[in-house]
Amino acid sequence: MSETTASSRALADTALRSPLGEFWRRFRTKRVAIGAGIVLVLIVLTSVLAPWTAPYNPTTPDYQAILAGPSWAHWFGTDAYGRDILSRVIWGGRISLWVGFVSVALGGVAGVVLGLISGYAGGWVDSVIMRFSDVLLAFPGILLAIGIVAVLGPGVTNVIYAVAVFSVPVFARLVRGSTLALKQSVYVQASRSIGVRGTALVLRHIFPGTLPGVIVYMSLRVGTAILTAAALSFIGLGAQPPSPEWGAMLADGRSYLGVDDQLTLFPGLAIFVTVLALNLLGDGLRDALDQRLR
Amino acid sequence: MISTSPPPDGCQADGSNAGSSAAETLLDVSGLSVSFPAGRQRATVVRNVDLQVRPGETVAVVGESGSGKSVTALAITRLLDYAGGRIDAGTLAFRLRDGASLDLARAPQERMRQLRGPEIAMVFQEPMTSLNPVLRIGNQIAEAVMLHQGLGAAAAREEARRMLERVRIPEAGRQLDRYPFQLSGGMRQRVMIAMALSCRPRLLIADEPTTALDVTVQAQVLRLMRALQQEMGMSLLFITHDMGVVAEIADRVVVMRDGLVVEQGDVGAIFARPQQDYTRRLLAAVPVLGSLAGENLPRPFPENGKEPPPQDTVDAAHKPVLEVDRLVTRFEVRRGLLGRSVGRIHAVEHVSFMVRPGETLGLVGESGCGKSTTGRSIIRLEQPEAGSIRLDGEDVTELTADSEKLLRRAVQYVFQDPFASLDPRLTIGFSVAEPIRTHDLLRGRAVEERVGALLEQVGLGGGYSRRYPHELSGGQRQRVCIARALASEPRLIIADEAVAALDVSIRSQVVNLLMDLQRRLGVAYLFISHDMAVVERIAHRVAVMYLGQIVEIGPRGAVLGDPQHAYTRRLLAAVPIPDPARRGHERALDDSEVPSPMRRHDDPPEVAPLVRVGPDHYVARHRIGGLF
Predict the structure, then answer these.
(1) Which residue of B has its CA nearest to A9?
(2) Which chain B residue is nearest to residue A18, measuring alpha carbons?
(3) 3-state SS of A122-162?
(4) Would you say B624 and B351 are in contact if contact means Cβ atoms under 8 Å apart?
(5) Residues B62-78: what's their mean pLDDT?
(6) Is A185's Cβ below 8 Å from some Cβ in B?
(7) Chain B 436-455, CB below 8 Å of chain A: which residues?
(8) How far is B196 from B400, CA to CA, in rounded Å?
(9) For residue B543, what are the contacts with CB-CB under 8 A and spacing of at least 6?
(10) DSSP letter at B180?
(11) pLDDT, position B9
C-alpha cells in the first residue's frame, strides 16, 4: 500500500499549492515573458541609475562632436548640439518610465476604487460611474490626452494626469466585472452571513480577488502610457527641451531623418523595446494569473 | 498487491445474466495501469486493475473520490487519450459481435470512434452539460442514429421517438422538438440514456449517472436502466460512490481505493460478508434509512464498530431559539426587453416552524423545494416578503442595527461546498477569527487562543490556523467552516447540505462532530438536507418541504416511521437501501414529475394551516402540486 499512498501524495502535491505558488509554477514556463521581464528590469535599472550608467551629461553640448555617428566615444552618436544620444536615451528613460508607471498607477488606483464602488453598490451609483466611463471611453485616448494637456498646459506632470485620466475607465470596468462575480461567490456570502459588511467586506474579501486582473492590465497599460506620453512630447505638449524625453528626442531628430538617423533610431528603439517587453510580460502574466482567460 | 481473482464461476446474480455462459466475457480488463502527467513526472492513478464484465451483467465500480473509478471507465472508452491520461500497462480485451477479441488499450483512435456508440456507449453524471444546448433533443438522438445505423432522416426521427418512448418520456413525439433547457434534470438524463441506447450498444458505461439527480428521480432512472438492460440484454458498467445505488442495481461489485481494486465479488457476498477491512468500513459508514426505527432520539454513526448511545439534548423547558411564522419568499421571473414580470417562483410559501434550544430540526426535500431559500431567508441572504422571524423571542424580521447584530451573532450558516465557502486568500486562522473580530468578542492574544481552542474543538489542531484552505481536504475544510460558525457562540447553526459534498466516510465523521458539539454546547441546528438517512441520525424533528411549503413536520420517529403525507411517503420510498437482499420487491414508485414552483400572478398556490395528526406531528391536508 505504501506505493499507492506515495502516488496519491504525488497527485496531491500538484493540487496543493498556494495561489502564489500556482502562479509561479505557471509563469515559470513562460520563457518569453521571463525574458521580457529581465529586459525590463535592465531598462529600469539603467534609467534609475542614470547618474552612474550614463557616460555623459545629457544636456551638456559638445560643439566638437556635432551630429557624429555611432563611435566608441559615443555609442549611439551625438545630436545637433553634440549631446551624447546614449546618455540622453538613458536619462530620457527616467522621464518616460516615470510617466508610464505613475500615470498608470494613478489611473489604476482611481479606476479600481470606482470599479469596486460601482460593482458593490450597484443601482444608480453603478449607472452614474459606468455612464461616466462610457463617455471617457468614447474619446480616442490620444485625443482625450491632448484635450487635457491643452487645458492644463504642456509639461511632464500634466501628461501624467492626462494619461491617468484615460486609464481610469478601463480599470473601472475591469474591476466592476470581477466585483460583480465575487459579490455572488459563496465565501463572500458566508462572510456576509457572519456580519461582515461594507468596507471591510470589500477590502478583505472582494478587492484581493480583483487584483490578478488589475496587475495584468497594469503591465499592458504601462506600455500604452509610455507611447501616449511619447506621442504628446513628440507634438510638443509633453516634456520641454532640453529635457531628454524619448518622444521629444524623436521630435528633435525629425528634421535630420534620412541624414542623421541616429537621432530618431535610438530613442525609437528604446520606446519599441520597452513597450514590447511590457506587452510580452503582460501576456505572460495574464496567462499565468487570470483564471478567466485560462 | 491486492488484486483479487476473478469471481467464482456461476455466480448467482438475480438471474439477469441468465443465458450467458461465464466463459464468454464481454470485457476483460487485466493489469490496467493508467497515469497522468503531474508536473515533470507522471502520477499513476490506476494500477493493476482486473475486472470482467459478462454479457447481460451489471458490474458496479464503487469507491470514494480519487479512487480511480472514473479513470478506469475513461480508459475502457479510450476517452482517456483526450483527458491527457495514458495507459501504461494492461489489456482491455473486448469481444466483438463476430466473436473476435479486440484489445481496446491498443486499438487506434479511428477504430475506437467506430466502436463508441454501436458497441460501447456512455452516460455521464451531468445531464446538463452532456447535451448540446442549442440543438433540439430529437435532432441530437437522430444524429446518433443516422451516424451509426445509416438510416435516413425520417426513419432516424421515428427511431428517436421510439427511443424516447422506451425511456418512458411522456408524449415523446412532442418532446422531440424541445431543447435541453426545457427539460428537467431527470428528463435530460433519460434523453442521454436514450441517445446512448439508440445504437443498441452491448456495453453501457454509466459514470455516476444519478448523482446529480434528486432521490425520487434517481429511483426512477435506476429502475429504468435496469429494465432497459434486461430488455436489450446489454452489459452495464456502473460507476458510483453510493453503496445504496450499488445495492439497487449491481450483479457484481468492484471496490476501488487509491487506484487499486480492493475487493470484488457478487453483490450479495460483498454486502453480507465483506472480506477487506476497507469494504467493511465503507459499508459501515453508509447511512441506512430505517436503522433508528422505533427510536425517538438521534444517535451518532457507529465508530470503530461500536454503536454510540442516543443523545437527549433538547431543552424543552426553555422558549424556542428560533420561531419562523408564515415566512414567504418569492422571486419575480422577468422576461423580455422591458423586464416585465411574467410570474413568480414561490420558493418559500407560508412556512412556519420553531427550533428549541439544543434541538436539531431536519429540513428535507428535493432540489427546488425551497429548503435552502428558507435557511437563506432566515439570515437575510434572501429578502423575505412576509412573515416573522423571532430569535429567543426577539423579533428580527425588521433588521435594525440592534436586531442585525443579534441575528448575525446568534445564527450561523454552514454552506454546502467547503471548497467555495472559505476565502482562498486568507489563512484558516483569519477566517475563524473573523466572526470574533466582527462582533468584537475578544481582543489581542485572546483571539488567537480562542481560534486555537475552536480548531481543537472540531478535531483539527491549533496548528491549522496558519494554513490556507487549499492545503486542506474537503472534510477538513468543512470542519473549519464549523469552527468558524461556532466562533460567535451562536444559539443556532443552519447547516445547508453541509455534508452533501463529502465522501461517505468523512460524512459520518462530520455528522458525529456536529452531534458531539450539540451535546457539549447545547447549540441548535436547522439541518437542511436531501439525504433522509443522514437526517434520521441527527434530527430530533423533521420537516418535509415540497413546492415551497412544509407538507409534514413532527418528531423524527413519527415522520420517517409513519409518514402521513403522500409526498413524504414517495420521498422515503425512493431512498436506495444499501442491502441487495431488500431489492427484490419493487417498491412503489411513480414516474410523475415534480411540478414547477413558478406560477402566474393570477394563480397563487393554495395555502392552509397544517393539521395535527399526532403529538407534535402536523400534516398538510390541502392540495399542494396535486398531492395531499
Answers:
(1) B43
(2) B470
(3) CHHHHHHHHHHHHHHHHCCHHHHHHHHHHHHCCCHHHHHHH
(4) no
(5) 88
(6) yes
(7) 438-439
(8) 57
(9) B353, B361, B362, B363, B364, B550, B552, B553
(10) G
(11) 41
Nearest CB to A19: which of B45, B381, B425?
B425
Q: Does B426 sit within 8 Å of A7, measured CB to CB?
A: no
Residue holding cell 423580455? B336
The domain limits of chain A are 26-293
Cell of B520: 457539549
Higher pLDDT among residues B373 and B608, named by residue: B373
**Which residues on chain B are in Cβ contact (under 8 Å) with A289?**
none
- Shortest CB distance from B44 goes to which of A7, A192, A195? A7
- Give the pLDDT confidence of B531-570 residue by residue, as tens digits: 888 999 999 999 999 988 999 999 999 999 999 999 998 8
Architecture of domain B322-392+491-619: 3-Layer(aba) Sandwich (3.40)
Q: Do A190 and B258 touch (CB under 8 A)?
A: no
- The alpha carbon of residue B493 is apart from the nearest alpha carbon of chain A, in Å, by 11
Over range B66-76, report the average pLDDT. 88
**Separation between Cα atoms, residue A84 and residue A94, nearest integer Å:** 16
Cα–Cα distance, A174 to A279 (Å, whole number): 18
Asked whether the beta carbons of A237 and A149 are under 8 A apart, the reply is yes
Q: What is the pTM of this model?
A: 0.81
- Alpha-carbon distance of A65 to A80, in angstroms, equals 9
Element (H, E) at B194: helix B185-197
Query: Considering chain B, what percentage of its residues have pLDDT values greater than 90?
Result: 31
Contact B76, B50 (CB under 8 A): no
Highest mean pLDDT among A49-53, B373-377, B601-605: B373-377
Q: Is B392 helix (H, G, I), strand (E, B) or coil?
A: coil
Q: Measured between CA atoms, how close is B622 to chain A, in angstroms?
A: 35
Instruction: Map out the domains of chain B as residue ranges.
Output: 120-200, 322-392+491-619, 419-490
Question: Which residues on B lie below 8 Å from A194 (Cβ)?
Answer: 408, 412, 434-435, 438, 484, 488
B-chain CB neighbours of A193 within 8 Å are: 379, 381, 408, 412-413
Q: Which of A5, A15, A194 sits opposite B435 (nearest CB)?
A: A194
Min Cα separation A38/chain B (Å): 25
Which three cell numbers mark B82?
A: 483526450
Q: Residue B607 and residue B614: Cα distance in Å, rounded?
A: 21
Q: What is the pLDDT of residue B17?
A: 41
User: What local confidence, expressed as pLDDT, does residue A292 receive?
Assistant: 45
Q: Is pLDDT above 60 for B222?
A: yes
Contact A10 B417 (CB under 8 A): no
Q: How many CB pairs under 8 A join A and B?
A: 88
Stretch B149-172: mean pLDDT: 84
A28 shares contact with chain B (CB less than 8 Å): no
Is the domain spanning A26-293 CATH 1.10.3720.10? The answer is: yes
In the prediction, which pLDDT does B293 show?
81
φ/ψ region of B93 (left if φ > 0, alpha if ψ in -120 to 50, else beta) reads: beta
**Which residues face B329 on adjacent strands?**
B348
Starting from the edge strand earliest in sequence, which strands make up the sheet with B598-599, in order? Answer: B394-395, B386-391, B322-335, B340-355, B598-599
Q: Are B212 and B162 in contact (CB under 8 A)?
A: no
pLDDT of residue B128: 64
Which among B39, B45, B438 has the least Cβ separation from residue A195? B438
Report the C-alpha gap between B437 and B331 in whole angstroms.
34
Q: What is the mean pLDDT of chain B?
A: 85
User: A4: which chain B residues are within 8 Å (Cβ-Cβ)?
Assistant: 47, 258-260
Least confident of B97-111, B210-224, B227-241: B210-224
Non-local CB neighbours of A23 within 8 Å, separated by 6+ positions: A212, A288, A289
Give the pLDDT of residue B407: 92
The confidence score (pLDDT) of residue A5 equals: 37
Handedness of CA A93, A96, A97, A102 (dihedral sign): positive
Q: Would you state the pLDDT for residue B587? A: 56
